[in-house]
Write a structure and sequence with these properties.
It is a single chain. The protein is of the alpha+beta class. It has a single domain, classed as Immunoglobulin-like (Sandwich), CATH 2.60.40.1220. It has one helix at about 1-20; strands at about 30-35, 40, 50-55, 65-70, 80, 90, 100-110, 115-124. The strands form two sheets. It has a four-stranded antiparallel sheet with strand order 1-3-6-5, with no helix packed on it. It has a four-stranded mixed sheet with strand order 2-8-7-4, with no helix packed on it. It is elongated and about 75 Å long. The protein starts with a helix and ends with a strand. The structure holds copper (II) ion.
């Protein structure tokens, strides 16, 4: 009886500890900033798109690509997490003509949670 109470007590303490852990420890990865910037208009075609996240990414499950407004993929197929910076997602581009482009990203953070999003930039 006494040891059952002890076990219940320990379980409750663990539950409270887990519950009280700061959200940051469990945080999903969200974009911090990017190049080109979200919604920006730029005058020369960028060689790549880079997005910096607020946490480390899982390279095996994180993707990035760029579409034109016809929905065709224009980025090279080398989207990846930078090997020297686990918060940086990047993909190369050919020399793109003027137009608006859609960046589509999908990442898994170190906590195993997936986040995804998209944004546009325009080359004038
Ligand atoms: Cu998460």
């Amino acid at each position: 009886m006494r040891s059952a109470n002890l076990r219940t007590g320990i379980a409750i303490i663990f539950f409270v500890l887990l519950w009280g852990l700061p959200e940051a420890l469990w945080a999903h990865a969200f974009p911090d900033h990017s190049d080109p910037k979200v919604g920006s208009t730029i005058s020369s075609p960028p060689a790549q798109v880079r997005i910096w996240f607020d946490g480390d990414l899982e390279p095996a499950f994180s993707t990035i690509m760029v579409h034109n407004m016809d929905g065709r993929m224009v980025s090279k197929g080398d989207g990846r997490v930078d090997p020297s910076d686990p918060t940086l997602l990047e993909v190369s581009l050919p020399k793109l003509p003027p137009g608006t482009y859609l960046v589509i990203w999908n990442v898994v953070a170190r906590d195993g949670h997936r986040t995804q999003g998209q944004y546009t930039f325009t080359i004038k």
